[in-house]
Design a protein that fits this description.
39% of the residues lie in helices and 18% in strands. The chain is an alpha+beta fold. The chain has a seven-stranded mixed sheet, sandwiched between helices. The chain is flat and about 95 Å long.
Length: 626
């Protein structure tokens, strides 16, 4: 008998239906030579400290660091888990072969390997690796099963991550609680959560200690168009009101002259397809959904077979998906009015290297629709909104670039002997405009268009399609005339607090502020956490009372600020250093770094941190949370 084990009951039933295992046996489905069972996510976990040594049961500085000579796993203490594991164990003990049908990723590999290890499975194991739960994808997956040994490095990376989180978290939490917590509260320290908290605390520190600078902007209106004075590089405006007013009075009676009119053609590519982080960012910006909520929604859409595997960190598709795209688009019936132009007059889909690139795809591709007609699937309003974002991005990937014309008009007010601030004889001004020539993919986000399955009255993705358009009058070089100058007082503003959207981006790029997609891709290698875990990390900070929501923004609590303030060990709170660790875990996955070396470095790092903190003779303390 062949035993298949999936990560969720619903996924197991989808697989069982395809395999013909129709008989429900309680804890597994059976039929056609297969037994299909399931876990509920993690059934096993690493043992607690006291299960390695009785001396580690009591929290004591003298017993740190706690580093087991060999890590072990145990079954979670839960009656439902114990009951299901008993079913799995019995099946695996008698199996002729096992097919690991866990989620196709590092965490899914770890979950199932631990269960098989705990159940004492001895038979050969194959791996099912699929990116969607449609019947076609499952059948294709079973036709191309691979030996589980091909995924050994994936398991080793997941195991190193779990051991790293346990070793650092257990030791640092006990260390800081005993040393600085006044025995009144647990100070939770984590490999990813602490650097993430540090990002929020540091941003709040920048805001609190920001000193605004006042400056004055000179502008003038000529032919109903506002022109702004062009200052020296690095200057926002006049540094004193006196300078600004002097310039204002000097140019008021003088004519304004157009000195140049430049027009430049430009193109704008469709927005990238979604990875998990960019989808969470977009849902937070547009709908206010938390990262955790978005993850739950896209996971549900995956299980309902309308979207592909969500826990991904690439925005690209492999070349072999391209031939399937017409079929996927054909199934997206509510969007037919957007799709029809792609095939009008005998046209075929265009294949862009900004979408299809094998070198940018490893285990999984970007999140896209599966081709199942969304109108035939029961979705909540929130799920419909998320699906709508994914659908429009996918359709947009096949549209041509938006074409526009950028116009820059410069002018000046000139007078011999005009000397104001750094200006000599003339003060230059500039205005810019943009005219859309061919909106192309922008039509997908125009207002008042049919919205596919999006609920009536719900927000849509208009932001993506609204390209600031400001047309200028037809100016000619040399023309001149009267104008109306004004002087406006302004102040520099502090950095904005993190929202969940901007925090996710900061975690993705190890705290670096990056808008460019290509540069962001390069920094992903050093991001902190994985796309699938970042939402949980943010939720953990809320639960620990280290951060709070202030309207749409995130702010640290007093406890969070105090905790980061007392941590002097940069390894614990630096997003960049933690990102380097994350990079090594990815390298283990790709056979580029040795797992044993990683564990040895981890043990040394934790030992050094314990020694450093123990030698601290200051009287630093974190007061109890209010």
């Amino acid at each position: 008998m062949i035993v298949c084990i999936a990560e969720k009951p619903s996924v197991a039933r989808d697989i069982a239906n395809v395999l013909g295992a129709k008989n429900d046996r309680g804890g597994f489905m059976e039929g056609n030579g297969y037994q299909v069972t399931w876990t509920f996510g993690h059934l096993c976990e690493l043992k607690e400290p006291h299960e390695y040594s009785s001396m580690w049961k009591t929290w004591s500085l003298a017993q740190l660091p706690m580093i087991p000579s060999r890590f072990g796993i145990k079954l979670k203490a839960d009656k439902g888990v114990e009951k299901q594991f008993a079913v799995i164990e019995k099946l695996m003990q008698a199996a002729d072969a096992i097919i690991n049908c866990g989620d196709a990723g590092q965490e899914g590999e770890l979950i199932q390997r631990w269960v098989m290890q705990k159940a004492g499975a001895k038979c050969p194991v194959q791996r099912l690796w699929i990116s969607s739960l449609t019947e076609e994808a499952i059948r294709e997956g079973f036709q191309s099963l691979k030996d589980q040994r091909e995924y050994q490095s994936l398991y080793e990376a997941g195991l190193c991550r779990a051991i790293g989180d346990w070793t650092l978290g257990m030791n640092a939490t006990r260390l800081y609680t005993l040393k600085y917590g006044l025995n009144r509260q647990v100070l939770s320290i984590g490999r990813v959560q602490t650097p993430t908290l540090a990002l929020i605390v540091n941003r709040q520190h920048e805001i609190d200690h920001f000193t605004p600078e006042t400056y004055w902007v000179l502008s003038t209106v000529y032919r109903d168009t506002t022109f702004t004075a062009v200052m020296e590089e690095g200057d926002r405006g006049f540094k004193t009101q006196e300078e600004g007013e002097k310039a204002l009075e000097a140019i008021r009676p003088l004519p304004f002259t157009i000195t140049s009119v430049e027009k430049k053609a430009g193109k704008e590519a469709p927005p990238r397809l979604f990875d998990l982080t960019s989808l969470q960012v977009e849902c937070n910006k547009k709908f206010g959904y938390s990262a955790e909520t978005t993850l739950q929604l896209i996971q549900s859409l995956y299980e309902k077979k309308v979207a592909t595997y969500p826990r991904v960190d690439t925005t690209y598709l492999p070349d072999d998906v391209f031939p399937k795209c017409p079929q996927i688009l054909d199934g997206m019936v509510p969007y037919a009015h957007f799709i029809q132009p792609l095939f009008a007059d005998g046209k075929t889909l265009k294949k862009s290297t900004k979408v299809f690139d094998n070198s940018k795809v490893t285990d999984h591709h970007a999140i896209i629709p599966t081709g199942v007609n969304p109108a035939t699937v029961s979705m909540t309003d929130m799920e419909k909104r998320v699906y709508d974002l994914i659908a429009r991005r996918f359709i947009g990937a096949f549209y041509p670039e938006c074409k526009f014309e950028q116009t820059t008009v410069t002018g000046e007010v000139r007078s011999e002997g005009l000397r104001v601030a750094s200006f000599d004889d003339a003060i230059p001004f500039r205005a810019t405009g943009k005219r859309i020539i061919d909106p192309a993919w922008h039509v997908l986000w125009e207002k008042k268009k049919p919205a596919g399955p999006t609920p009536e009255g719900s927000p849509e993705g208009q932001d993506e399609g609204q390209n600031e358009e400001r047309s200028l009058p037809a100016f000619k070089k040399g023309e001149n005339g009267p104008h109306t100058p004004t002087l406006t007082e302004k102040q520099t503003t502090p950095p904005k607090p993190y929202t969940e959207a901007t925090l996710l981006r900061a975690m993705e790029t190890a705290g670096k502020l990056v808008d460019n997609d290509e540069l962001r891709d390069a920094l992903k290698e050093n991001g902190i956490g994985r796309p699938s875990t970042r939402a949980a990390i943010i939720e953990t900070l809320f639960k620990r009372n280290y951060i709070k929501r202030v309207r749409k923004s995130l702010a640290p609590t007093a406890t969070g600020i105090e905790l980061i303030g007392l941590i002097r060990e940069e390894l614990l709170k630096s997003a960049e250093l933690t990102g380097i660790w994350e990079k090594k875990l990815r390298q283990i996955e790709r056979h580029e770094y040795d797992a044993a070396t990683f564990i040895a470095e981890l043990k040394q790092m934790v030992t050094d941190i314990v020694l450093t903190v123990m030698q601290d003779n200051s009287n630093r303390r974190v007061p109890p949370a209010q």
